[in-house]
Amino acid sequence: MRIDVEQLAWMAGSTTIVSGIDLAVRSGETVGLVGPNGSGKSSLLRCVAGLRTPTRGTVRFDSEDIRGWSPRRVAQHLAFVEQASDADSDLRLGDVVALGRTPFRDRWRGLSRADRIVVEAAVERVELAGLEGRAWKTLSGGERQRAHLARALAQQPWAVLLDEPTNHLDVKHQLALLELLAETDQTVIVALHDLSMAARYCDRLAMLHSGTLVASGTPEEVLTPGRLRDVFGIDAEVGTDSLGNLAIAYRSPA
């Protein structure tokens, strides 16, 4: 699925959160959204996911304006993974993952055998097999985050949007999640704090600052010392590590 964002703006009351965003994401591409806290990454993702209506501009899936799509049709094509919630729930882990099949079944029909196979595969893919019966309130933050990812995988979407999905995850599962996203043939837009991981696992990056898109391109094109200083307020050197990956060395503030 190709995603095109055209002159998108969104306001909360009288406050402009994002403005003038143009972003084209090719089918099968992984694009990372980077920027300081409050730069508009989450708001942009929610507009693309159809969870917020842009004040101006359009979002197109394969050239179709999603304003003409029903919520059910959006959910059949796109999955959104937000930052893990700490809210209690009486659901079990397996119940949460099974919610990913909701857009594809009748309201009063339970999971089919085919649905259960999809759910089981998603749970196994995020290394949670055997925990399906665990109560949601007993899970750690990392387990909840992986369960949300499994729910998105169970949707079998054409595109996946993720808002800081590595929060609450240990290093092993951060790497496993980003490897999974890099290897999928789905279109992926992911907001990330860790610039080195964004550079390693994303095909392209889009850098936001104060609600505007200030740079878009390959990690090498976007993560320059000048932009890191201007956007993040840090002094850094950008080079490559022993494995040939882009590496960022931060200087301590004076």
From TrEMBL:
The lineage of its organism: Bacteria, Bacillati, Actinomycetota, Actinomycetes, Propionibacteriales. Residues 3-235 form the ABC transporter domain. GO terms for molecular function: ATP binding. Pfam families: ABC_tran. CDD domains: ABC_Iron-Siderophores_B12_Hemin (cd03214). It comes from the Bacteria. Keywords: ATP-binding, Nucleotide-binding. Signal peptide: none annotated. PANTHER family: ABC TRANSPORTER ATP-BINDING PROTEIN (PTHR42794:SF2), HEMIN IMPORT ATP-BINDING PROTEIN HMUV (PTHR42794). This is ABC transporter ATP-binding protein.
